[in-house]
Amino acid sequence: MELEKPHPVPEHSLAQPLVQLERVEKKYANHTIAVQDANLLVREGEFISFVGPSGCGKSTILRMIAGLSEPSGGNLQVMGGTADSARKSGRLAYVFQDATLMPWCNVLDNVALPLELKGISRKQRTEESLRVLELVGLKDYSKSLPRELSGGMKMRVSIARSLVAQPDLLLMDEPFGALDELTRQTLQQELLGIWSANPRMTVLFVTHNVFEAVYLSTRIAVMTPRPGRIVGQIDVHTSVPRQEDFRTSPQFNELASRVNAVLRH
């Protein structure tokens, strides 16, 4: 397999973590403990996937980092401050499981929404939106309405919308879970290409799919059943962008086996 240049991690990122969880807990009003004693350090430029059984708190952790849910205990810092301040800064973006597009707006206007909310001129937000639509292969569909798109195309629009403001931190909650396998692999490849072209961008990705986590990540955080704790972190020392034959390589199978072993035990 031909080796590519590894995705660089900026040297200055070694001094200051982008995201830090120290004994973070999330307890709901009905006394359900979704996350308990979660510890994680995220550096700039990493691609970290969370895997674990259903209901283990993967999405809960992502929502707390995004400032959409408050921790019940522990310490959570995002970009040197609170998760809420990071969310309000506009430096992070969130991609949900569903595309959550505005059905009455065309593709271009859906993608341009974050820039419109920032008060960016129409000319500039159109230029930036077309740029990211070209990245995800949808520039020719800029005038289409969401109902005219396939599921995979809608998710591409959602990803483009998250990228248009050039976030430092991209949070993705099972964005490919409802897609067929071929579309899923295509979007995995596109996502890796976009991330590898932006070495300062950090991605936190939730998935149930071990093979998806191995293919995409520089590190995989494995969680226990509820109450969710991070019990294993597995580094993926493979250069990016990754070639398709990585999926059938001995290294890929060995990494997937290691992740499954932690999940089982």
Automatic annotation (TrEMBL):
<keyword id="KW-0813">Transport</keyword>
<feature type="domain" description="ABC transporter">
    <location>
        <begin position="19"/>
        <end position="250"/>
    </location>
</feature>
<dbReference type="Pfam" id="PF00005">
    <property type="entry name" value="ABC_tran"/>
</dbReference>
<dbReference type="InterPro" id="IPR003593">
    <property type="entry name" value="AAA+_ATPase"/>
</dbReference>
<dbReference type="InterPro" id="IPR050166">
    <property type="entry name" value="ABC_transporter_ATP-bind"/>
</dbReference>
<keyword id="KW-0547">Nucleotide-binding</keyword>
<keyword id="KW-0067">ATP-binding</keyword>
<protein>
    <submittedName>
        <fullName>ABC transporter ATP-binding protein</fullName>
    </submittedName>
</protein>
<dbReference type="InterPro" id="IPR003439">
    <property type="entry name" value="ABC_transporter-like_ATP-bd"/>
</dbReference>
<dbReference type="InterPro" id="IPR027417">
    <property type="entry name" value="P-loop_NTPase"/>
</dbReference>
<dbReference type="GO" id="GO:0005524">
    <property type="term" value="F:ATP binding"/>
</dbReference>
<dbReference type="InterPro" id="IPR017871">
    <property type="entry name" value="ABC_transporter-like_CS"/>
</dbReference>
